[in-house]
Design goal:
This protein is an alpha/beta fold. The chain is built from eight helices and six strands. The protein has a single domain, classed as 3-Layer(aba) Sandwich (Rossmann fold).
């Protein structure tokens, strides 16, 4: 079993560290999108028969950039289009905040996510963070997802204010979704064992 893990906007691949510790026997490829320094080094590619796991924007990135190179898909608070569900003004506000006071903007985002003080101000990669916001504004992978014929699992939190429950319910069929009562927008940090258990159960049930 091989997993490829992709983190969301404003984080680095270290968000998966505790979860990976609960995945005995699994081979793992970490993809780091370059938003924040300080995490483990990311890889550039992964085996085509991997189970793809994306957190938040990481799921959209897998759909948009992954070229369907996975045998199954796991969304951890992810989406196939952000601004189809959330007003674009929220992204515009983050863009203004990055220009005005990037450390304060990221700290506010981390606080809302449930991961205060995730990284020091010196770790922020401004150009890449801005590029990531542009992806959130422009990328719409709904058509790509509709064409992917593979098993899907969605993990979500009822108290997520970044990707709220109604957004998750609009994207992922209820039959494919497992809910945690809490965890904010950082289930891999708050409930790593819970995430790992459900991913392993999903993986072991694959044909």
């Amino acid at each position: 079993m091989h997993l490829v893990l992709v983190h969301g906007w404003g984080f680095h691949a270290g968000i998966w560290a505790d979860m990976v510790a609960h995945l005995p026997g699994a081979e793992v490829t970490l993809i780091d999108l370059g938003f924040v320094e300080g995490g483990p080094r990311g890889a550039a590619d992964w085996p085509p028969d991997s189970i793809a796991v994306g957190h938040s924007l990481g799921l959209l990135w897998l759909l948009q950039q992954g070229r369907g190179r996975f045998r199954a898909l796991v969304s951890v608070q992810g989406f196939d289009c952000f601004c189809c569900h959330i007003p674009a003004s929220r992204i515009a506000s983050l863009q203004r905040g990055l220009r005005r006071d990037a450390p304060a903007t990221l700290e506010s985002f981390w606080q809302a996510s449930g991961a205060p003080h995730f990284a020091p101000p010196t770790a922020l990669k401004m150009d890449r963070l801005d590029e990531g916001l542009d992806w959130l504004l422009r990328w719409d992978a709904r058509g790509i997802r509709a064409k992917i014929d593979c098993p899907v699992l969605a993990l979500a939190a009822r108290d997520d204010v970044i990707v709220p429950p109604d957004m998750t319910s609009a994207i992922w069929p209820e039959a494919d979704t497992i809910w945690s009562p809490d965890g904010g927008h950082v289930l891999p940090l708050k409930h790593p064992e819970w995430c790992a258990r459900h991913i392993l159960e999903f993986a072991h049930a694959l044909p």
